[in-house]
């Protein structure tokens, strides 16, 4: 029977990052994936490392630290991960959003983020194709992006080069504690043993939790995205609408029974390195139905052509949906479970898992090695849910 120092469950960007940092520390690691690498949210999402959307506090601190790691990650992994810093703008088109956005920007500036409100003239200068009638916008220089598929590919290659064993298309049927070891049994009757388990199964983490009687309050938040044909750049910065922030800070300001509110849409608009634009995305609570819907496609199209009328003439080439692993309070869960020594959790990243993958892997590896973590992360412990 194969034995490991650590078995990572889940082959999304978080599991791959955790495995990478553990392997770098000389641990013997395997990764178990129920389907294929990238089958979950990490293969069906936007591509942003967005600082502006993070509330001051641990979420923003994690994002800032992660961005620093991302800057060198292509070199560290020996593969281009599509990292770019283009900056970002959150367009404000409603008077009632302006005051709220001003105080939000203020609180982030006090936290050290270089972000400001620019007027409509400056907006037009940066993004000439934005519709008339925009009141103002935020502007931040550090918002960046990566190609999540390339990040996963690069992590996977490095991990395999460092000796990681990969178990694909494997369904875990049981997890048993054997004195100080864990035994993981698969549907096909085979099993492996390990000193530690890292549950990085994204929106499915609670299923793994149930196998060891740990309640993990993480549920799927569906997001649908549209992809345009390849286009010339409309402007350097990636774009959001203030609905995206306002719906988090003051949901009552979003029209009560609008489709936008029901589908949870606040526009996100970014251009990939290949020239396609990603238009996102919905925020739908509920089930694991991966279909995209006519209603969402129509609403996203209306939103983008409202802000960029010029896009009425272009073609959409596909749509897709993914499931954000959303924790009960919207913050990640990164910890060892106190009552289950050797069982670790790295999940619940919601809409921020691409941005936070490197810092999560780094912190998790420090926890597994019983070191002081490089940031204080007590508030990310699962014990906060009682
Ligand atoms: C529409 C959309 C837009 C987004 N945009 C952004 C963005 O711009 N920036 C950002 O930072 N984040 C964004 N996110 C969020 C980001 O995609 C997620 O937070 C991140 O991908 C989560 O990674 P993960 O590895 O935890 O989960 P996943 O990628 O879902 O991986 C979990 C893996 O576990 C596997 N698994 C499940 N059950 C088992 C089992 N029993 N045994 C073994 N394996 C199992 C699954 O098959 C899957 O491969 C977006 C998400 C969506 C849906």
Mean pLDDT: 95
Question: Biggest β-sheet, characterized?
Answer: 9 strands, mixed
CATH superfamily of the largest domain: FAD/NAD(P)-binding domain
> SSE string, helix = H, strand = E?
EHEEHEEHEHEEHEEEEHEEHHEEEHEEEH
Bound molecule types: flavin-adenine dinucleotide
Q: Unreliable stretches, pLDDT < 50, 5 or more residues?
A: none
Number of DSSP helical runs: 10
Return the CATH architecture of the largest domain: 3-Layer(bba) Sandwich
Beta-strand residue percentage: 25-35%
Rg, rounded, reads 21 Å
CATH class type of the largest domain? Alpha Beta
CATH topology of the largest domain: FAD/NAD(P)-binding domain
Please provide the count of β strands: 20
The structural class is: alpha+beta
The N- and C-terminal alpha carbons lie at a distance of: 37 Å
Task: Please give the domain count.
Answer: 2
Helix content: 25-40%
Outline: elongated
Give an account of the 3D structure:
The model has no long low-confidence stretch (mean pLDDT 95). The strands form three sheets. Strands 5, 6, 7, 13, 14, 15, 16, 17 and 18 form a nine-stranded mixed sheet that branches. Strands 1, 2, 9, 10, 11, 12, 19 and 20 form an eight-stranded mixed sheet that branches. Helix 1 (13-24) runs parallel beside helix 5 (148-161) and helix 2 packs across helix 10. The longest helix has 20 residues, at 58-77. The protein folds into two domains: 3-44 and 149-217 and 329-385, FAD/NAD(P)-binding domain; 88-141 and 219-327, D-Amino Acid Oxidase, Chain A, domain 2 (2-Layer Sandwich), CATH 3.30.9. The chain has helices spanning 13-24, 58-77, 95-110, 120-126, 148-161, 205-211, 242-249, 259-263, 294-307, 353-368; strands at residues 3-9, 29-32, 48-49, 84-85, 88-92, 115-119, 136-140, 144-145, 165-167, 172-178, 181-186, 191-199, 218-230, 238-241, 268-271, 276-280, 284-285, 316-327, 333-336, 343-347. A hairpin with a 4-residue loop joins strand 11 and strand 12 (191-199). With 386 residues, it is α+β, with helices and mostly antiparallel strands. The chain is elongated, with a radius of gyration of 21 Å. The protein is built from ten helices and 20 strands.
């Amino acid at each position: 029977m194969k034995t490991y120092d650590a078995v990572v469950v889940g082959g999304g960007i978080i599991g791959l990052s955790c495995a990478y940092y553990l392997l770098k520390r000389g641990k013997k690691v395997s990764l178990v994936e129920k389907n294929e690498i990238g089958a979950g949210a990490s293969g069906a999402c936007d591509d942003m490392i967005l600082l502006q959307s993070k509330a001051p506090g641990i979420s923003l601190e994690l994002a800032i630290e992660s961005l620093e790691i991302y800057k060198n990650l292509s070199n560290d992994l020996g593969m281009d991960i599509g990292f770019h810093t283009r900056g970002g703008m959150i367009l404000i088109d409603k008077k009632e959003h302006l005051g709220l956005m001003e105080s939000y920007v203020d609180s982030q500036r006090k936290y050290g983020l270089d972000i400001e409100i620019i007027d409509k003239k400056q907006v037009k200068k940066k993004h000439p194709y934005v519709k008339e009638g925009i009141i103002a916008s935020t502007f931040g220089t550090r918002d960046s992006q990566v190609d999540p598929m390339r990040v996963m590919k690069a992590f996977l290659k490095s991990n395999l080069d460092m000796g990681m064993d990969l178990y694909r298309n494997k369904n875990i049927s049981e997890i048993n504690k054997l004195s100080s070891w864990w035994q993981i049994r698969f549907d096909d009757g085979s099993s492996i043993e390990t000193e530690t388990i890292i549950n990085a199964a994204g929106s499915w983490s609670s299923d793994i939790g149930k196998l060891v009687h740990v309640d993990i309050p993480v549920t799927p938040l569906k997001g649908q995205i549209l992809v345009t044909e390849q286009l010339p750049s409309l402007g350097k910065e990636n774009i959001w609408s203030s609905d995206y922030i306002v719906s988090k800070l003051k949901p009552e300001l979003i029209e009560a029974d609008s489709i936008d509110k029901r589908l949870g849409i606040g526009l996100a608009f970014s251009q990939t390195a290949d020239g396609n634009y990603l238009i996102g995305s919905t925020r739908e609570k509920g089930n694991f139905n991966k279909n995209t819907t006519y209603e969402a496609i129509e609403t996203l199209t209306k939103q983008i052509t409202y802000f960029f009328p010029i896009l009425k003439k272009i073609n959409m080439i596909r749509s897709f949906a993914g499931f954000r692993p959303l924790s009960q309070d919207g913050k990640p869960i990164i910890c060892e479970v106190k009552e289950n020594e050797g069982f670790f959790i790295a999940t619940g990243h919601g809409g921020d898992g691409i941005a936070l993958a490197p810092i999560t892997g780094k912190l998790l590896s420090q926890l597994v090695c019983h070191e002081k973590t490089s940031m204080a992360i007590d508030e990310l412990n699962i014990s906060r849910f009682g």
